[in-house]
Amino acid sequence: MAHARSGRVVHARWMPRRNLLLVVALAVVTATGIARFASAAPPSHVASLQADVAEWSIVPSVGVVHAGRVRVTVRNLGARTHSLEVVRTAKFAEQVPTRGGHVLAQPVGRPLTVAAGAVKSFVVRLAPGSYVLLDNLPGDYGRGMFVAFAVR
Q: Was domain 47-151 assigned CATH 3.30.390.10?
């Protein structure tokens, strides 16, 4: 049998073998890719909460986030440094207990200090419930540096 373009003689018995090898090679590559995909750990979802802060307000991007890992990103648009904390509460955001200008509730995670003009973030694991993002520098919470949000 002559090849249409080159005029070379191609034996018909090699065509099925070559096709079979091609099919087997494709099957092996596909099976390997599927096995790798199936064995890979699924990417962990991280919810997101952005907040713009300035003297004397915190403006969040959302009011509700999904439970689990949450990335809190704070952009300080003010002229002062702010120290942001996430606090779980059963009270209204403006009723968190204070003493000496500081909120007494235990923060979830570590405080995040953000200098004027800076942007910083941290990841915290949150269970369903009510939370407050607040500035716990002396007197800042009392001046309105807090915002409530929910975790569902």
A: no
